[in-house]
Automatic annotation (TrEMBL):
This is Xanthine dehydrogenase family protein subunit M. It comes from the Bacteria. Gene3D superfamilies: 3.30.465.10, CO dehydrogenase flavoprotein, C-terminal domain, Uridine Diphospho-n-acetylenolpyruvylglucosamine Reductase, domain 2. Keywords: FAD, Flavoprotein. Pfam families: CO_deh_flav_C (PF03450), FAD_binding_5 (PF00941). GO terms for molecular function: FAD binding; oxidoreductase activity. SMART domains: CO_deh_flav_C. It comes from Lichenifustis flavocetrariae.
């Protein structure tokens, strides 16, 4: 690990000031030379691997009293960004009313990591691509902009088939973001220019020609809260995760489903995919194909096929097309059996 400066944020307003003196500093690996630290489960790991080399680390854990609570009302659910993953996953109201959120958190990481990691930090975790995490591979546009992508012609079994580009085919590794996508969550952001609110769908950027720019957050901005609106689809929701083993493993394919039925007819449905895309992926065309139709194996299969139109599999990850489709079908049919 390289030497770095360490600051502790005293308030939400003062936290971004740690970035002020670095505005004119050179980017490090295409990123701002300072990083926020919350649970630390990803940042410290990548610093030890020399994948991330921030000149300054700003510890925001002292802000937990302001951003570490859970509130539920008729309008919806509000989660502080510094709420621990395990706390949200075990919250009775979240389990009962927003089961897709609780399940996505429970199926992520190990119990020890869930006790440390925060919700905001979980959304900002970086890819698990081996070429990104192993600095002996020089060709990684996400770590070393302009160097190429070793995964294109390398071992790419875990990599993305949706939303990727010729500059990066790394997969977004998280689970929680897909659940938030399915529920149309919004994020409260604080930063040097003040506060703003954005849809979760606009947080992550597809790789395009700049895979090192992973989110729409400006330097010094931090997520302070997550809001999920109430709706008739939140109770009939689930997260299905397919992986190589049942414990502490990243998704090969996953689906977050939120469903509103009138009898057996689909009034509204939300489908978000994980394990197959470069960013949390909403399958809106697949959703539209189900509206007004009965939900059965035939309609679910047609929707699943539509969800993967435009996929671009490579040598080792072509299996994800079929696996992803079967995951969507299974998740939709399981959701239909739940009580609304």
């Amino acid at each position: 690990m390289r030497p770095f400066l360490y600051d502790r944020a005293a308030s939400t307003e003062s936290a971004p000031r740690a970035f002020d003196g670095l505005k004119e500093a050179s980017l490090i690996q295409g990123r701002a030379p300072a990083e926020y630290l919350a649970g630390g489960t990803t940042l410290l790991d990548l610093m030890k691997l020399d994948v991330m080399q921030p000149a300054r680390v700003v510890d925001i854990t002292p802000l937990e009293p302001q951003h570490g609570s859970i509130a539920i009302s008729d309008a919806g659910l509000r989660l502080g960004a510094l709420v621990k993953m395990s706390t949200a996953a075990d919250h009775p109201a979240v389990i009962k009313t927003y089961p897709v959120l609780a399940q996505s958190l429970t199926l992520a990481a190990s119990a020890q990591l869930r006790n440390m990691a925060t919700l905001g930090g979980n959304l900002l975790q970086r890819t698990r691509c081996n070429y990104f995490r192993d600095t002996s591979w020089s060709a990684c546009n996400k770590r070393n902009p302009g160097s190429g992508c070793a995964a294109l012609d390398g071992l790419n079994r875990q990599h993305a088939i949706l939303g990727a580009s010729q500059d990066c085919i790394a997969t977004y590794p998280g689970d929680f973001a897909q659940a938030l996508m399915a529920l149309d969550a919004t994020l409260d952001i604080a930063g040097p220019s003040g506060s703003r609110t954005i849809p979760i769908a606009t947080l992550h950027k597809p790789p395009g020609s700049t895979p090192h720019i992973e989110t729409t957050l400006a330097p010094g901005e931090l997520i302070t809260a997550l809001s999920i609106p109430a709706g008739p689809w939140t109770r009939r929701s689930l997260y299905l995760k397919i992986r190589d083993r049942q414990s502490y493993e990243f998704a090969l394919a996953s689906a977050a489903i939120a469903l509103h039925l009138d009898g057996d007819t689909v009034k509204d449905v939300r489908i978000a995919l994980g394990g197959v895309a470069s960013v949390p992926w909403r399958a809106r065309d697949a959703e539209a194909s189900l509206i007004g139709k009965p939900l059965n194996e035939a309609t679910a299969t047609a929707a699943a096929r539509m969800a993967f139109v435009g996929s671009a599999p490579r040598t080792h990850n072509a299996y994800k097309v079929t696996l992803g489709q079967k995951t969507v079908v299974r998740a939709l049919l399981q959701a239909a059996t739940l009580e609304g």
